[in-house]
Prior knowledge:
This protein is α/β, with parallel strands linked by helices. It has helices at 3-25, 78-89, 104-107, 126-129, 174-182, 194-203, 213-222, 253-265, 268-276, and strands spanning 54-58, 97-101, 117-118, 132-139, 143-148, 167-170, 189-191, 208-212, 226-231, 242-247. It is built from nine helices and ten strands.
Amino acid sequence: MSISRAALLLTASALTVALNACAAGTDEPTATEPVAEPPACHKEHLPTLEPGVLTLATKPIAVNPWYINNQPENGQGYESAVAYAVAEKLGYNRSEVRWIRTEFTDTIAPGDKPFDLNLSEVTITEERRQAVDFSSGYYNPTHAFLTTAQSPAAGITTRDELSGVRLGARTGTTNHQTAVRLSGEYPAIEFATDEEGREALLNGDIDVLVLDLRTAFSTQLELPGSVIIGQLEPEPGNSEQYGIVLAKDSPLTDCVSQAVDELGDNGDLFRLQKEWLAGPGAAPFLP
């Protein structure tokens, strides 16, 4: 072996040893994959009333089929199921959801709210939009007419005949607006709650209670001898929808609407309607 070649090998060997020594003495951290940032519409970014908690609300008395056994926290009933589905879309698990109760008039009144979201069968209207925010619609209601077998209204087959009987509905609702519009001989009677309306119907104080169709079905099951006369056909350009209520200009509105839209697009809303809003029989359209 020549001297130059031996020197070259020795130099290479020494360099290798030196590099290994440097590597052994270096205590630098290894590179890691960056942690993905939660999406904008995730609980980590949502300014709820209580950080990390989603406060939901409904009426003082929540009835079937919207809430089963007046227990919104059990996830049973259409609105309870929708509420938890929306919460899940926003990243909340059930332990991070709490429920409160609010009066209907307080729900749609202007001002601060003690809830983040409220699901109380509230129809979206432009007038109400002046006071509160609404999500995208999660249900399209129709108006139905409930009576008793002994009532003079039991034989009604057309909407015009409704003008000759006493109609009643819960105040502040589109059901009441419909009752006022269809009343003739007798002025429409308003009640603070649907439960008061049921009592009035059973006591003969009114002949017909105006309800949304699904509530009419559930009420029919609860009131022996009650009869659904029929329902109104949807009016062109006047498709009503229930929306989730939020405080006016809430920073959560867009994210909640996005969650509702996703539930509609993937078929979850339809599935939940079939599960919780199936009623016995049918209600004919009143010409």
